[in-house]
Design brief:
mainly beta; two-stranded antiparallel ribbon; 6-stranded antiparallel sheet
């Protein structure tokens, strides 16, 4: 996914392709289908597949960073999207999580690394990285492959930069954090 509704990808023969779409939605829908096709063409899905839909801005998130996420989760059924089993998109509350804390499924921990504020990503999570053989009673059958569309609404980064006066500059509590470098790129310490 690239700015201005472009997508670029390689085919099986390593031929590079670029496609321009009429809208951001058309580019995202295409990217979702490519991700599902990758999943369906894998003999064994043993890790998280992800496809960026929108790249977002700022620094990519790492373990220890706090995120607020809007998401929808589907079951992968018959090689495509099945029923929605969870979503907070039409709710007032975003999901808050600290990446790397182990409070969410392993597929989310892995699949959200490197995302940026405003970024959207499509995740396909195999059972071992999701809810496994136990599933979730009444919502996720045992050994289910999961599909999520996640959007990072807010980020609180662990790392801080030093300002030109030597004091810590942090945008950790603002909705749109971004590190503030010195004009010369060096710390005044």
């Amino acid at each position: 996914v690239q700015p201005n509704n472009y997508s670029a990808f390689y085919d099986d023969e390593r031929q590079n392709w670029s496609i321009m779409f009429e809208s951001e939605k058309a580019a995202m829908d295409f990217s979702k289908q490519v991700c599902i096709a990758k999943c369906n063409s894998s003999p064994v899905l043993d890790s998280v597949l992800y496809q960026d839909l929108l790249l977002g801005e700022g620094q990519g998130v790492e373990a220890g960073d706090s995120l607020e996420i809007a998401y929808t989760g589907w079951l992968l059924q018959n090689n495509g999207l099945g029923q929605v089993f969870d979503s907070n998109v039409n709710k007032d509350k975003l999901l808050r999580l600290k990446l790397g804390s182990g409070k969410v499924i392993k597929g989310w921990e892995e699949g959200m690394m490197g995302m940026k504020k405003g970024g959207r990503r499509y995740l396909i999570i195999p059972p071992a990285w999701g809810y496994g053989a136990q599933g979730v009673a009444g919502r996720v059958p045992p050994d289910s492959t999961l599909v999520f569309e996640v959007e990072v609404k807010r980020v609180k980064l662990v790392k801080e930069c030093s300002g030109s006066d030597g004091h810590s500059v942090s945008s950790r509590d603002s909705p749109a954090p971004s590190p503030v470098p010195n004009s010369d790129g060096f710390s005044a310490d």
